[in-house]
Amino acid sequence: MKGRSISEGLKRVAAEELNEDPKKIPFYIKAIRDWLQEQPHLRSIKASDQWLIGFLRGSKYNLDKCKKKLDKYYTLKSAAPEFFKNRDPLDPSMQAMLKAGIFLPLRNCVTEDGPRPCLVRMSEQYKSKRPLSDLIKISFMFAELMLLEDDNFNIAGQIVLVDLSDTGLTLLTQFSPSVARKTFLYAERALTVRMKSIYVLNMSRGLKATLNVIKMLLGQKIRNRVQMYDENYGKLYNYVPESILPAEYGGDMGDVQELTDYWKTKMESYRSWFLLQDENFEKVTANIITPSPSPTATENNEENRTFRRLELD
């Protein structure tokens, strides 16, 4: 079993909150690999130990839940190709978003064993007609990269800071109920992200009503974790201190351009991995037409139909 060693603080969080026992991880990995080989639509999937550990942690080491998440991760993609196809980091569209620094995990966490803060900047690009699906696509790409790369993200979860300072109604009007439900259905049921808090920054009075409507589309659990702020970050610093924020947000930890350059290079270094996921996507899509003996097949088919109904709506 090949997995990273983690800090003592994260070991404690993983044990207390995720039921992780390092001695049992090889057993769980083997059980999942054996199960994947029994699924006609999943047996061709090439997954590293670290990738599977991420799904096990996201399922709190419940094997049945882990199997369902893996099945959904691959099969629900077929119903939302606009989010999950053509994810080459060197594609011109992806390059434009990477250069703009739309999704930027911060260097440090609030505590050594705490969740990873991630800054989402809508940027000048979203004053134009760029499709919202591109933003959702690259956000999911970063979630997958962090699942592979970052133990704080994988174990303790994430804090999201959404900066709306350069955002107009062009973007928010694309966030229809169908897009919202599709996005959160996948994020909650197929990915392994533990969403701890969402801080919305630089929210103008004109956007507040629209955002309140969008909040109503979220599940109650996530809705309760959303906090909104204007240009005054004083209250935000009670939760996310200046010491870990970039200079543009009153912080001491470098600037946004430094983060942008770092994460652009990091995402590009994962190009072969994302191209492999595109191959996996094609294989699963080709085989999903044939009924699978998977215990989650019926449930996934229903969720695929839900995705498609949302698309039609």
From TrEMBL:
GO terms for molecular function: phosphatidylinositol bisphosphate binding. Residues 290-313 are annotated as: Disordered. Residues 302-313 have a biased composition (Basic and acidic residues). Residues 290-299 have a biased composition (Polar residues). Gene3D superfamilies: Alpha-tocopherol transfer, CRAL-TRIO lipid binding domain, N-terminal domain of phosphatidylinositol transfer protein sec14p. One of its GO terms (cellular component) is membrane. Residues 91-257 form the CRAL-TRIO domain. PROSITE patterns: CRAL_TRIO (PS50191). Signal peptide: none annotated. Pfam families: CRAL_TRIO. CDD domains: SEC14. This is Alpha-tocopherol transfer protein-like. It comes from Bombyx mandarina.
